[in-house]
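Annex B.
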Amino acid sequence: SKMAAASGKRFKGQISRLRKALYTACNCDDPNIKPTWQIKASEVVHDSKRKKISYKNAFLEFLGFPVAYTPYYSHPDPSVKRQSGFLFPSYTSNSELGTIIRTPYYYALSPYKDLTVEPMYISGQRPLMYAQYRQRFHNGEVNIESSFTNADRRTRVKTYSNKNRGHLFIDGKFDHNDYWRYGFNVKRTTDDTYLSRYLFEGASDRLRSDFFIEGFDDKSYFYTTGIATQVQSSTYQSNKTPLILPS
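LptD C-terminal domain-containing protein: predicted structure tokens.
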């Protein structure tokens, strides 16, 4: 990270107060390289004891252009690994959706689980809510990713207004004991164009859901799995998609 200012003072050996300052997570050792994002503020206070950086009259710049303003903003300093709070927003644009601004908030629920909630403002459509939950157990882990919006859905022949649209991804892996383990992976969407339209990572021509059970010892090995797919094509008849039963 990098912090710079026109002037500054340090109090009690722990609080730095900077005027006309900027902060970025980019090291930016090369002066010719501009950071992807940075925060400029009339005043920045870094409390090293509380491990907190706060801003007054802050502007968020993305690729050198101001995209957001707030009279006050704060976040943990880089030494903090896990703490609830706002993550840095992101900005993209798309010819169909228009301007897309993401403002994620991170919840550190415990040392073993966390939740990220990410409202998305979309100028060409209604807002979208995205969330990701992660939890580790003594014998495995679960990751859940989901989103929801109420928006128009366009097909080649018709536009459907005010449709509930979204997706759900669930991935889990567990060790039953030293010889057996199992896992599952669920990927489903409300319709076949949702992921690609909203630019989600992992969008492909088909989504694969599966489960497995695996067992082994010194002399034998066992493995069984079942697979289901959801084709992401508006011209494909989903009732023709086969199910692959355990084998």
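Helices lie at 194-197. The first helix runs from residue 194 to 197. Further annotation is deferred to the next reporting cycle.
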